[in-house]
Amino acid sequence: MPLFAQVLGQDAFAQLPAPVCALHSVQQRQTFAGRARIHRGTHALVLLLALLALLSRLPRSGEVAVEVDFLADAHGERWHRRFDGMPMHSRLWRHGDSLREHLGAVRFEFSLQADAQSLYWQATRVWAFGMIRLPARWFRQMRCREHADGGRYGFLVDVQLPLVGPFIRYEGWLEPR
Questions:
Q1: What stretch of H or E contains 121?
Q2: Among 111, 125, 128, 130, which is least packed by CB within 10 angstroms?
Q3: CA distance readout (Å), 121 to 48, 145, 147
Q4: How far is the C-alpha of 156 from the C-alpha of 177, rounded, in Å?
Q5: Which Pfam families does the record match to this protein (predicted)?
Q6: Which of 141, 139, 143, 117 is nearest to 126 (CA)?
Q7: Which ranges of the chain does DSSP label H, i.e. alpha helix?
Q8: Distance separating alpha carbons of residues 80 and 74, to the nearest angstrom
Q9: Whole-angstrom Cα distance, residue 33 to residue 42?
C-alpha cells in the first residue's frame, strides 16, 4: 500500500483528486516534471535556516523548471527534487498516524488531512539535528497543500516564521514524465 494511503487510510486516500492520488501511488520509482514559482524571504536569518534545511542552493526567486524523482521502498519514500537543477532531497516515512520528513538537519512530523479537492499537511512537531525539539507554534504559519491543477498535480508550500516573516514559498505543478 502506498505510504500516503497508509497514513491517511484507504478511504481518505481514495477521495483525493486523481493527480494527487496518482503522484502518491508510486510503487518503486517515477519521475515527475513541471514548473514552480519560488520566493525566499529576505530576513538575515533566512540564509542560516535555509542552510539547516539544505534549501540554500535553491533559487532565491523566479519561475523555474522542477523535476522530482519519487522512490518508494519498505521504509517509506525518498524525494529527490531539483529546482532549476538545484537539489533538495528528503526522506518520508509513516510514524503512527503521522507522516515524518527528514530534510537536511530538520525533521518534521505532519498531520495529513484530505478531502475531494486537496491534501493538506500541518506540521505538528519539528526537530533540529534529530534531537532538539522546536516549538510547534513556530510552524503554525506553514501551509502545505496539494491539489489538481488543470488535470496536473499542483502544490503550494508557504512557510512564514515568527520574527523572520516569509521564509520560503514555492508553488507550481508536476506531471509524470
A1: strand 118-128
A2: 130
A3: 24, 6, 12
A4: 20
A5: DUF4166
A6: 139
A7: 3-8, 10-14, 18-23, 44-52
A8: 17
A9: 28
- Strand 165-176 versus strand 152-161 pairing type: antiparallel
**pLDDT range class, residue 52, cuts 50, 70, 90:** confident
Q: Which three cell numbers stand for residue 44?
A: 538575515
Give 72-104 as a 3 state SS string.
EECCEEEEEEEECCEEEEEEEEEECCEEEEEEC
Residues counted in the chain: 177
Calculate the average pLDDT of the chain: 94
CA distance 3 to 39: 29
3-176 CATH fold: Lipocalin (2.40.128)
Maximum pairwise Cα distance, the chain: 44
Task: Specify the residue for cell string 497508509.
Answer: 6
Tell me how crowded residue 137 is: count the other CB atoms within 10 A of its CB. 8
pLDDT of 44 over the 90 cut: no
Question: Which residue's entry shows cell 516573516?
Answer: 165
Measure Cα distances from 125 to 45, 54, 80, 107, 161 in Å: 21, 19, 23, 8, 14
